From TrEMBL, chain A:
Coiled coil regions, renumbered to chain: none
Keywords: Oxidoreductase
Domain Pyruvate/ketoisovalerate oxidoreductase catalytic, chain residue ranges per copy: 15-194
InterPro entries given in the database record: IorB_Oxidoreductase, Pyrv/ketoisovalerate_OxRed_cat, Pyrv_flavodox_OxRed_cen
Name this protein carries in UniProt: Indolepyruvate oxidoreductase subunit beta
Origin superkingdom: Bacteria
UniProtKB/TrEMBL annotation, chain B:
Keyword 4Fe-4S part of the UniProt annotation: yes
Xref: Pfam families: POR_N, TPP_enzyme_C
Organism: Magnetospirillum sulfuroxidans
Protein name, per record: Indolepyruvate oxidoreductase subunit IorA
SUPFAM superfamilies documented for this protein: 4Fe-4S ferredoxins, Thiamin diphosphate-binding fold (THDP-binding)
Coiled coil: none
InterPro entries hit by this protein: 4Fe4S_Fe-S-bd, 4Fe4S_Fe_S_CS, HACL1-like, IorA, Pyrv_Fd/Flavodoxin_OxRdtase_N, THDP-binding, TPP_enzyme_TPP-bd
EC number(s) stated in the UniProt entry for this protein: 1.2.7.8
Length: 208, 619
């Protein structure tokens, strides 16, 4: 069984951010590479503004649909505090790819709870390797906030056990079929996500 | 549309358990399928509805869906119904006698347990129904098995003249995995044959059926012992072996790749002899089942005393690897698995909220203003969120439709402290039609003093906006007869002058209506009539904004509970001889606001104005 290496990716965010779509694209990419896949989604009452996570597991043969805490290879955080909430799911040496957007829930806004000043710093203080950048700013520059999904997938593309081009093709292929006009901008978004992740990684290497 | 619907045979697809079951139901030649929505089972019927050549419906409740399936089975059609675990409680009256009468066309009941309690009021183990009703229980462990087992369940149903329970959990329904699909096996409907001795369950006829039911259970036990759904994976490390079923099997296999495992798919009647033989092959046997010790207790009763189960494993929640690994390490005298590498960070809770412009907010805002004068009996739906911040205006939730029965009980059991309080019940449209309306009839009949708030948002909102008998649309989105709630309440005996229809966006009107009705000492109903903002019936309005210089920081608008209203800054108001008051100045996220206007009525200084007025003034 030792040759059955499983890749565990935990995608997290808030209802409506595209967490499920990102997880679906990762799962389909793994299938295209001949992997067995399981994708777990317990959204619960998440469509009412709650926390959303999706577990994506792929490899030769996947049994449990659930990522065991401490074994995730990659954490994709669509929102920065949500990224910090699930950081302990990572294995030693795993990476957290985090969009720095701060989405404040009503319980924080009215003062019942405090939004942490710097969730990324908290994660780093805990020893987690975090690559962070403002995916929303990139999406705004490209003129469509919905591109955050493609940007975040581009950001993790160099940390997957298959070539980035395979993931890109999975995203672009969807648009080629349905909205050809969106192909080019998604390619751009994917590339900019990759760049942003690389830059964050380099900055971290320089600054420690 | 689900990719599974048009997939050719032998295609391999990534499907949720619910999508896979729908495909299996269709392939099995099922002709009639019915359900009431309930997490995590809802998408089964939504997917079945996309297939051709079978009739599918939203029934008003699970019992009716069961009865529709029974009628179709009696008529020789393969039939199916799906429900969440608590739905089976509702359906069980019909089910417990169906099991005596048996089937003509195969009848499969899919019951989805919310193991881990992500979206329910309790955690039940539906495998009990197999024992209670003397019917077989099949338990798939992933999407492929769910797809295959639902087809096998139809065959088993016809072979043994019994309904079959397909027991699911959230980790089947809402996990996607690869499924290879097949062809449809189309079957003709044989038609209903009159046979009163069989279908009219008088005591005399039922007495004849009872011994047959016992004999059937014995035959099923033999079938379970031989079933290919119960498989031994011998493994290489015999120190501990597992008997397991459903998703727990996947967690066991993942955690202990070399352990011997007896994986049960046909779990009731329990194949005790097969398990005894397996017991002899391992040093220690652990029964890993979600959630109750059903197999374990039965095995112990059958003489397998030296086995482990719920003595070491939890009796609630999922048996995921992080639960199993430390328990089994301890059992084997090994070191526990290392703790996670990184400390847990717990930022703040992010509880579900109501949507901007949700009409329920107006009701709870108003109830929160009357809080000291009312006891509020609640029900099941999005509006259960009224129990939380900022409204704290819902006092009970037990089961579907319970709000009015409970309200009457409260009305009839008053203390010195509560004798002057009004009793209010709050229920949604779909829940009212499901099991609620009998409660209202009971209030009328027994001269109760309860004000019922019927929140008609034209949607089964909590499960994702399904249609029902009050929306005017059917399962396929087609036009359907639409119940008139006011007439229905009048027919149930509420006086016409005690039935009021109110726009919940008009807070002063709503406040007056509730205040007036709770003062009247007889049954009354207030129907709110704004649609769910996520439904096709909702049309948004233009957004509002806060004029910052006019906002006095009173924070009254925050009590509406709209997630589009947030605090922009805080301050303290100091007045001589008065305690300090914390001020919260607010702003409206205009991208979220759809202009429902509720916060405008809550604002004393009139600081909330249409956004366009604000921008025009600035120009």
């Amino acid at each position: 069984m030792s040759d059955n290496i499983i890749t565990n990716i935990l995608v997290c965010g808030i209802g409506g951010q595209g967490v499920m779509t990102a997880a679906e694209i990762l799962a389909q990419t793994a299938i295209a590479k001949g992997c067995d896949v399981k994708k777990s989604e317990v959204a619960g009452m998440a469509q009412r503004g709650g926390v959303v996570t999706s577990h994506v597991r792929f490899g030769k043969k996947v049994w449990s649909p659930v990522i065991t805490p401490g074994t995730a290879d990659i954490l994709v955080g669509f929102e920065v505090a949500e990224g910090s909430r699930w950081a302990d799911m990572l294995r030693p040496g795993g990476i957290a790819m985090v969009n720095t957007i701060r989405l404040t829930p009503p319980v924080v806004s009215v003062g019942l709870f405090k939004y942490p000043d710097d969730p990324v710093a908290q994660m780093r203080a805990a020893g987690v390797t975090v690559y962070d950048f403002d995916a929303g700013a990139i999406a705004r520059d490209l003129g469509d906030l919905r591109l955050i999904n493609t940007i975040m997938l581009g950001a993790i593309a160099d940390y997957l056990p298959f070539p980035a081009a395979d993931l890109e093709e999975q995203i672009v292929g969807r648009f080629r079929a349905r909205k050809p006009a969106m192909v080019e901008v998604n390619q751009k978004a994917f590339a900019l996500g990759r760049d942003a992740a690389r830059q964050s990684q380099q900055a971290l290497a320089v600054n420690g | 549309m689900s990719a599974a619907v048009q997939a050719q045979a032998a295609t391999r697809l990534l499907l949720s358990g619910n999508e896979a079951i729908a495909r299996g139901v269709w392939e099995a030649g099922c002709k009639v399928a019915a359900a009431y929505p309930g997490t995590p089972s809802t998408e089964i019927l939504e997917n079945i509805a996309q297939y051709p050549d079978l009739y599918a419906e939203w029934s008003v409740n699970e019992k009716v869906s069961m009865e529709v399936a029974i009628g179709a089975s009696m008529s020789g059609a393969r039939s199916f119904c799906a429900m969440k675990h608590v739905g089976m409680n509702v359906a069980s009256d019909a089910f417990m006698t169906l099991t005596l009468a048996g089937v003509v066309g195969g009848l499969v009941v899919a019951v989805a347990d919310d193991v881990g309690l992500s979206s329910s009021q309790n955690e039940q183990d539906s495998r009990f129904w197999g024992r209670f009703a003397h019917v077989p229980v099949l338990e798939p462990a992933d999407s492929q098995e769910a797809y295959e087992m639902v087809k096998q369940a139809f065959d088993l149903s016809e072979e043994f003249n019994t309904p079959v329970i397909l027991r699911l959990t959230t980790r089947i329904c809402h996990v996607k995995a690869l499924v290879t699909v097949g062809e449809r096996d189309d079957r003709a409907i044989s038609g209903f044959k009159i046979d009163a001795k069989r279908w009219v369950l008088t005591p005399a006829n039922a007495k004849v059926a009872l011994p047959r039911q016992i004999a059937r259970e014995d035959a099923l036990r033999q079938a379970a012992e031989k079933s290919a759904l119960n498989l031994i994976d011998p493994g290489s490390d015999r120190r501990v072996g597992f008997v397991t079923s459903g998703p727990a099997f996947m967690h066991v296999r993942d955690s202990f790749p070399d352990a011997p495992v007896l994986k049960l798919g046909f779990t009731y009647p329990l194949p005790v002899e097969t398990i005894k033989a397996f017991r002899a092959q391992v040093d220690v046997l652990v029964v890993a089942e979600e959630t109750e010790p059903l197999m374990e207790n039965e095995l112990k009763a059958a003489g397998l005393a030296d086995i482990h189960g719920k003595d070491i494993l939890p009796r609630l929640g999922e048996l995921t690897p992080n639960v199993l690994l430390p328990v089994i390490a301890k059992l084997l005298g090994e070191a526990p698995p290392p703790p996670a590498a990184y400390a847990k960070i717990d930022p703040f809770p992010r509880p579900p909220t109501m949507c901007p412009a949700c009409p329920h907010m107006g009701v709870y805002y108003t109830l929160s203003r009357l809080r000291k004068r009312v006891q509020i009996s609640g029900d099941i739906g999005c509006y259960t969120l009224g129990a939380g911040h900022p409204w704290n205006a819902l006092d009970t939730t037990i089961s579907m439709g319970a709000s009015m029965g409970i309200a009457l009980g409260m009305d009839k059991a008053r203390s010195e402290d509560t004798k002057d309080k009004a009793v209010v019940s709050v229920i949604g449209d779909s829940t009212f039609l499901h099991m609620g309306m009998q409660g209202l009839l009971n209030i009328v009949y027994n001269r109760g003093n309860v004000t019922t708030l019927l929140l008609d948002n034209r949607s089964t909102g909590m499960t994702g906006g399904q249609n029902h008998a009050g929306t005017g649309k059917g399962l396929h989105g087609e036009d359907a007869p639409r119940i008139d709630f006011a007439k229905l309440c009048e027919a149930l005996g509420v006086k016409p002058e005690r039935i009021k229809k109110v726009d919940p966006y008009k807070l002063p009107t709503l406040f007056k209506a509730i205040k007036d009705e709770i003062e009247v000492k007889e049954p009354s109903v207030i129907i709110t009539d704004r649609p769910c903002v996520l439904s096709e019936f909702y049309d948004g309005f233009k957004p509002y904004a806060v004029v910052d210089k006019d906002c006095n920081g009173c924070s009254n608008c925050l009590n509406v509970g709209c997630p589009a209203i947030t605090v922009s800054r805080t301050g303290i108001r100091q007045r001589p001889g008065m305690p300090d008051v914390e001020l919260k100045f607010t702003t409206i996220d205009t991208a979220m606001c759809t202009g429902c206007h509720m916060c405008v009525d809550s604002c004393g200084p009139k600081a909330i104005v249409p956004l366009h007025a604000l921008t025009e003034a600035a120009q």
